[in-house]
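ARCHIVE CARD
SHELF: 3
SLOT: left
DATA:
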Amino acid sequence: MAIQHAKDSTFKEMVQTEGITVVNFWASWCGPCKMFAPILEEFEREANGSIKVVKVNVDENPVTSSQFQIMSIPTTIIFKDGKPLYKEMGILPKGALQQLVASQ
């Protein structure tokens, strides 16, 4: 499973699934977001489909970004069974991301 890109119109449906969904809020002009992208891709690849990874472009999806009060990017929110459980701003090392997901 590859990283999926959500829009305001598809976001709710994409996270309302059983299990863990990692959502990354980002923008194309954001330097730290560009640095975090390969970490997220490697994390998703190593998860072997057991974890869903979704990206939300804050510029193109203001409704979803506002709903989750995204004030700084990159921001990562971990959902379990459709409910947000954990929110972290900034670049997360892959190991930290793995630990956060494992603790949910």
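SLOT: right
DATA:
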Amino acid sequence: MKKNVRKEYLAKRKQFTTTEINAWSLKIADIFLNSEFTQHQTFHVFLSMPKFNEVNTQYIIDELLRQGKDVVVPKMDGKQLLSCPYTNETKLVKNSWGIMEPESNQEVSPDKIDVVIVPMLISDAKGNRIGYGGGFYDRFLSSLDEKTKFVGVNFFESVKEDIPREEFDVLLDYLITPNDIYKFDK
């Protein structure tokens, strides 16, 4: 089922125009930046892949940096994700998957991360999410402190049907869409 749902939402997202993506991404950024999350200091934020019509997280990153927050971004290391410091001067390179990531292997300790903005395709009303299927974020999220908040950002509202959950899947704490912020009960 996950494979079919993944395929369905990739296809739906592919239909969005750049104008829609930018407008909705700005709304998501506005909701995030006007929430309780900005009380925290260290944020792990994925770098968007325009070819997949993802939420453009650069709006969030730019404002967090302007506010003097610490931003870290993912870098693939085998099947793991490292959290590497990010500033406006960070040199980015394309990895073997075509994803931009820091050239440096400098890593921020996972226990320093307060909030993770998680990439996703869709979630259900319980906080189960479907990503791209590699398990990178589930492995990464499971390595973090209980205090860390997991925030999915998505153009779609949660689906009503339960998404099948496997033992290694990690639940989201929150979902932000262009319309609102939703808290999941764990």
